């Protein structure tokens, strides 16, 4: 029976396709006969002229068609109904199976989270994790447990892990007990989280949601934030040396006095962000949106600003020495007191566009337009 069932499952679809093809072939033949019968006045089709011939009362093709139409329609309707019901049942089964798999996976993630919290609590309470030294075995165990659990969790539970270890005072910026270098926080939901003063050096926050998060004084050196959502984030005085922000949405972010030297900010959206006093030495801001950004007293020496939109930006007192401003949009930017010694690829036309601000000034002899 199992073999027959398996054969039927394989043969059912080709058989159905064959029957459908035969039905349409027969329908085409019937339509052709009706048209030819009407055209050539064939009596046997029932479409010829009325005569007194007794054979006229014999069953014609049309009479037989009338007898067959209702059963054919019922048969076709029944087949279509069964086919539709079967497909709907298959879809319902697939949705039900997927829901059951999702529930099972979610239960597994929740169980894994609870086990992690229990084990870490043991390390904190029974093995004095907080009072341990840098090379102690208990720290290595805590790190391995944390790095192992994070890739298995969904965005919300990744947040729970970070909140747990932060509240446990394991992420101090100057003397972190738990080293999170290489931690997988991709796509984590960290919106409006408070991690001020934390050491998050070398973590992967690719495409994570950090909107409105408080990351003041945080150490994110060497971390990957490319594609992250960082709207309204507070990164004042944060240490972001060499961080990858490529394509990140930093609209309205607070980055005053932040160290972003050598950071990758390619295509980043910094619209109306605050970068006053920030360090952007040798940072890559290629095609970045810096429209209306506060860059007063910011160090942009050696920065790559090719194609960047600096329209309406406040660059008062900014250091743009050796910066590459090729095709940068400086219309309406305030360059009062800015230093532009050896600035590269900046044209006289670009400077003319900045003159809409009455206080714009360029130091004499500091610029050699190309």
From TrEMBL:
Keywords: Membrane, Repeat, Transmembrane, Transmembrane helix. Pfam families: Pentapeptide. The chain crosses the membrane at residues 20-44, 64-81. InterPro entries: 5peptide_repeat. It comes from the Bacteria. This is Pentapeptide repeat-containing protein. It comes from Dictyobacter vulcani.
């Amino acid at each position: 029976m199992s073999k027959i069932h398996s054969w039927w499952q394989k043969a059912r679809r080709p058989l159905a396709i064959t029957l459908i093809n035969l039905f349409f072939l027969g329908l085409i033949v019937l339509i052709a006969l009706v048209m030819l019968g009407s055209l050539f006045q064939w009596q046997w089709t029932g479409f010829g002229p009325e005569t007194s011939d007794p054979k006229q009362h014999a069953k014609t093709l049309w009479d037989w068609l009338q007898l067959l139409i209702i059963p054919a329609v019922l048969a076709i309707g029944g087949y279509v109904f069964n086919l539709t019901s079967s497909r709907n049942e298959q879809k319902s089964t697939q949705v039900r199976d997927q829901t059951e798999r999702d529930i099972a996976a979610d239960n597994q993630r929740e169980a894994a989270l609870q086990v992690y919290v229990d084990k870490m609590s043991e390390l904190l309470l029974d093995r004095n994790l907080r009072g341990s030294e840098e090379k102690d075995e208990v720290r290595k165990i805590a790190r391995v447990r944390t790095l192992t659990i994070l890739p298995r969790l969904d965005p919300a539970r990744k947040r729970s892990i970070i909140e747990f270890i932060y509240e446990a005072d394991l992420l101090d910026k100057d003397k972190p007990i738990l080293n999170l270098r290489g931690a997988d926080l991709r796509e984590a939901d960290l919106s409006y989280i408070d991690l001020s003063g934390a050491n998050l050096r070398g973590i992967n926050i690719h495409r994570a949601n950090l909107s409105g998060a408080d990351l003041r004084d945080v150490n994110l050196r060497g971390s990957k934030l490319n594609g992250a959502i960082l709207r309204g984030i507070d990164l004042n005085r944060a240490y972001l040396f060499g961080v990858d922000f490529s394509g990140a949405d930093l609209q309205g972010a607070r980055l005053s006095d932040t160290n972003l030297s050598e950071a990758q900010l390619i295509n980043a959206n910094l619209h109306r962000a605050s970068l006053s006093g920030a360090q952007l030495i040798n940072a890559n801001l290629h095609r970045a949106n810096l429209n209306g950004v506060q860059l007063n007293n910011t160090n942009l020496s050696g920065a790559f600003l090719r194609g960047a939109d600096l329209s309406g930006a406040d660059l008062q007192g900014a250091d743009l020495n050796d910066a590459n401003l090729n095709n940068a949009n400086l219309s309406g930017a305030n360059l009062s007191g800015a230093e532009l010694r050896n600035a590269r690829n900046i044209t006289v036309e670009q400077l003319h566009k900045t003159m809409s601000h009455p206080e714009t000034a360029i130091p004499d002899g500091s610029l050699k337009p190309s």
